[in-house]
Amino acid sequence: MKWLFALLLAVLIFGGAALFSYKIFIRPEMVMRAERKAVATPVPTPDISLPEFKAAEKLKNEGKLLEARAALTAFIQKYPSGLHVGEAQDLLGEANVRILLSDYPAPEKEEYTVRSGDVLARIASKFKTTPELIMRTNNLSGTMLRIGQKLHLSRPEFSVLIQRNAKLLYLLDRDHFFKRYHILDEKLPGNPPAKINTRVAEIMAWKNGKRVGLASPQFLNSTRWIRLATPGYVIYSEPDDAHQILDIPPPGEGFGMAASEVEELSSLVNPKTAVTIVQ
Questions:
Q1: How far apart are CA 232 and CA 189, in angstroms?
Q2: Whose CA is closest to 275, among 236, 235, 224?
Q3: Of 193, 203, 121, 135, nearest to 164 (Cα)?
Q4: Portion of the chain with pLDDT greater than 70, in percent
Q5: Is-above-0.90 flag for pTM?
Q6: Is 110-153 in CATH node 3.30.1490.20?
């Protein structure tokens, strides 16, 4: 019986000591750690770029396109990795296109008066632009011109950069950002190299499964493709809200983009436009 009493006494002594140690040392340390974690919760960094972004966005929404263009360009240069740089690029692209594809006055535009013997293709060649760009800028429904007609002309020097991993296509004017487009699908032949330098080979327009030309009345409502010089590389149209039914199914290979964006892009590039494709 003595050994049993001694055992119980030892349990009480050492168990009590363990409980005392837990309450005095261990539990308070756990509480302190929890408190330190709570105190160490990072405070969100204030978005210092937001006021400037909102100010530039307001200019664009008010239709002050030249001012918006300048403000958005400055914003992107100042905050190249900022929270709103993607949104700023989209707004800048919209402003750039609205300025270019309309009679909105801009310093880079010039006015041309149609003369006897002028045809759209000849004017486009003279000013190093495209017939469709002239048509869209001046809201022309066809290629016919009249003597004395005033045309607004621009001379952009576009190139294209495709970033495959980011699924983005950048349209550059003299190596400066003009607009970005989103790639919806990618189906490329073989094992594509890390970098491809190519060019636009031709603009293809389809109506009811057949090719149509610029002079056709069906051209403005056609489905567009942009064929590149590298075999198997085509920028093709995919259905969107404005083009739910396409005039030709997608090809087996290439880059798929919204039909409205391919239509717009096809009016800006030409068979001399350089294209760089990177991963």
A1: 6
A2: 235
A3: 193
A4: 85
A5: no
A6: no
